[in-house]
């Protein structure tokens, strides 16, 4: 079984270790001991399949962030955590997300935006709406408010992230298949394979030119096929990101039970 490498990122003191330890061990740490780097393992079952997770709890404070580039490279999914009591921690996440996208060289990296310490009602500085706004700006990255103290939405954020990784992997396989199919199509349709051998000899030069031209045309057709499927996937992704409540309202009575099940599995915005 393959390991799914998840990385927990965020400023110092936002609760990364508490969320991770709550998820892995079901224990709440109420003392603050700044992390250098801790790795945890957990096996979970999602949709009747078992996954081995390796979770890297990273350092939030600047002195210990030298390894960041390395673990972003090896991470498959990212939990980006801020504290709802600390504006600076949300601002730091903008930079962190940019860094992840740059290092991964992709804008479709599995990630979850997390506003932790939601139990601290009187100390709250960042509203739920602000969290939702950031999530929309980020292309509707799934957003949750959590409380490591109350163990609220803790499992949900990890499960959501694993689901995103699985979905991404399936989409990559689909894109590869589409590419292979279009290449196969080009091979089968190549004019040189259809001409009798004598004619092939006579027209060798012009055919070469022609076949490379048609190759170009067909491969661009193939590419557009792939693009279309990517666009369709984007669309799917967008629908996952609709906050649970509005998704239910919109689809209402016309939603089939299967569709409902799908939506239930992909709630993208969860508050306490
Ligand atoms: N009330 C409340 N306090 C929390 C919560 N999560 C963490 N804390 C507290 O916040 C402090 C910091 O938590 P940590 O989990 O160590 O924070 P961190 O993000 O791992 O910090 P670094 O290791 O420095 O990056 C601790 O005193 C925790 O008890 C929460 O959900 N609610």
TrEMBL record:
GO terms for biological process: regulation of establishment of cell polarity; signal transduction. Keywords: Cell membrane, GTP-binding, Hydrolase, Lipoprotein, Membrane, Methylation, Nucleotide-binding, Prenylation. It is found in: Cell membrane. It catalyses: GTP + H2O = GDP + phosphate + H(+). It is a lipid-anchor. Residues 184-272 are annotated as: Disordered. Pfam families: Ras (PF00071). Residues 184-200 have a biased composition (Polar residues). It is an enzyme of class 3 (hydrolase). Residues 204-229, 244-258 have a biased composition (Low complexity). Its main location: membrane. NCBIfam families: small_GTP (TIGR00231). It comes from the Eukaryota. Belongs to the small GTPase superfamily. Ras family. One of its GO terms (cellular component) is plasma membrane. The keyword Transmembrane does not apply. Its EC number is 3.6.5.2. The lineage of its organism: Eukaryota, Fungi, Dikarya, Ascomycota, Saccharomycotina. One of its GO terms (molecular function) is GTP binding. This is Ras-related protein RSR1.
């Amino acid at each position: 079984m393959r390991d799914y490498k998840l990385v927990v990122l965020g400023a110092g003191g936002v609760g990364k270790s508490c969320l991770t330890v709550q998820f892995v061990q079901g224990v709440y740490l109420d003392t603050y001991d700044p992390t250098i780097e801790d790795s945890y393992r957990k096996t979970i079952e999602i949709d009747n399949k078992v996954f081995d997770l390796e979770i890297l709890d990273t350092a939030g404070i600047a002195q210990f962030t030298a390894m960041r580039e390395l673990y972003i490279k090896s991470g498959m999914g990212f939990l980006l955590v801020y504290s709802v009591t600390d504006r600076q921690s949300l601002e730091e996440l903008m930079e962190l997300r940019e860094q992840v996208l740059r290092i991964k060289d992709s804008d479709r990296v599995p990630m979850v935006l997390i506003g932790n310490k939601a139990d601290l009602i009187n100390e709250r500085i960042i509203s739920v709406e602000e969290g939702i706004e950031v999530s929309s700006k980020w292309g509707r990255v799934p957003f949750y408010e959590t409380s490591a103290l109350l163990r609220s939405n803790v499992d949900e954020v990890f499960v959501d992230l694993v689901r995103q990784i699985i979905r991404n992997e399936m989409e990559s396989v689909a894109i590869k298949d589409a590419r292979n199919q279009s290449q196969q199509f080009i091979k089968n349709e190549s004019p040189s394979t259809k001409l009798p051998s004598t004619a092939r000899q006579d027209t060798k030069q012009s055919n070469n030119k022609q076949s490379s031209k048609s190759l170009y045309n067909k491969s661009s057709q193939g590419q557009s096929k792939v693009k279309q499927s990517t666009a369709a996937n984007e669309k799917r992704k967008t629908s996952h990101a609709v906050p649970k409540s509005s998704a239910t309202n919109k689809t209402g009575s016309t939603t089939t039970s299967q569709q409902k099940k799908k939506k239930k599995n992909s709630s993208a915005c969860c508050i306490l």
